[in-house]
Specification:
With 318 residues, this protein is of the alpha/beta class. It is 35% helix and 16% strand. A hairpin with a 4-residue loop joins strand 4 and strand 5 (147-151). The protein is globular. Residues 6-212 form the PNPLA domain.
């Protein structure tokens, strides 16, 4: 078995490309020591960190009813529910369906809390805290305090025991696409203060450096990143294709700000040669982030693109 750390980018339905990449890496004999992910990347990362093999990941995703992911709020009527959700809950959809699905899948693998995903710190970075020895790291954004959250690493900021926190809840926080899925709330167990948590992509959608050593020691194995969003500026209209239509200048600027918020921070890292060479880039241009009505053929095409991208990448790295 070849050992690697893995970092998975977020991107909604485009994440089926990530599924294909993870499946192919497993099929090629790779074992993941640690996995970090944002949004849908966190969802796939959680399954892999829980020990799911290629067959089990395929089966789990087969039980995900894609059309149910955008779950309407009461009265569960098209457009009306979305409008009421935006006005009263700051988002068009609840986001509970995908959280409950993931919780069931993880429980079947024997994982409920991050305590089930602790790992032995043998040979880890000497600068890592005891709260950083886990197989999984989920990226989310605390908009109340304006900070990136690396869960379970940062639960101490809320005086919470990381071992006791739900993995499915953390992933759901990371998937809170602003205005699309309802934001989550995280309460400090000591002060009682509550923070609003949204999609990790707002601050970091591709934290490929998260497992890099900081103690000056040689790395034990490489970190590979799986990327599903296009480069800027050429791909700016492919992040949210529905925003690709010509817009008046003020709205065109707003579009660029929105897209840059999701991918601009990571684009800076990708411009570094040492980052680009460890990144598996997948073509997901055939779907939008929120294309939850994608048919089975489109989903399989995304999975195939992920598998092909891994084969191409490994041809240069093995």
């Amino acid at each position: 078995m070849r050992q690697v750390d893995l970092v998975l980018e977020g991107g909604g339905v485009k994440g089926f490309g990530t599924v294909g990449a993870v499946i192919r890496l497993l099929e090629r004999g790779y074992a993941f020591q640690r996995i970090a992910g944002t949004s849908v990347g966190a969802m796939v990362a959680a399954l892999a960190a829980a020990g799911a093999d290629a067959r089990q990941i395929r089966a789990a995703l087969g039980r995900l009813e894609l059309s149910r992911v955008p779950d309407r709020t009461p009265p569960h009527l098209p457009l009306i529910s979305e409008g009421l959700g935006l006005l009263t809950r700051s988002a068009a959809y609840e986001g509970d369906y995908v959280r409950d699905w993931l919780d069931r899948e993880l429980r079947a693998l024997g994982v409920v809390t991050f305590g089930d995903l602790r790992r032995e710190p043998d040979g880890d970075d000497d600068n890592l805290h005891s709260d950083q020895h886990y197989k999984l790291v989920v990226l989310a954004t605390d908009v109340t305090h304006g900070r990136l959250l690396r869960l379970p690493w940062d639960y101490h900021l809320y005086h919470r025991d990381p071992d006791e926190q739900s993995v499915a809840d953390a992933v759901r926080m990371s998937m809170s696409i602003p205005l699309y899925f309802q934001p989550r709330r995280l309460t400090d167990r000591t002060t009682g203060d509550t923070s609003v948590i949204v999609d990790g992509a707002v601050l970091s959608n591709f934290a490929v450096e998260i497992f890099d050593r900081t103690d000056g020691q040689e790395r034990r194995w490489p970190t590979y990143g799986v990327r599903i969003l296009p480069d800027l500026p050429a791909g700016i209209d492919k992040v949210f294709p529905t925003l690709g239509l010509p817009l008046p200048p003020p709205f065109e600027l707003l579009k660029k700000v929105l897209v840059t918020a999701f991918v601009g921070h990571d684009q800076t890292h990708l411009n570094l040669p040492e980052v680009r060479k460890r990144t598996i880039a997948i073509d997901t241009s055939n779907v939008e982030i929120t294309d939850f009505d994608a048919n089975a053929e489109t989903v399989q095409e995304l999975i195939r693109h992920g598998q092909e991208a891994v084969d191409t990448f490994l041809a240069d790295h093995e």
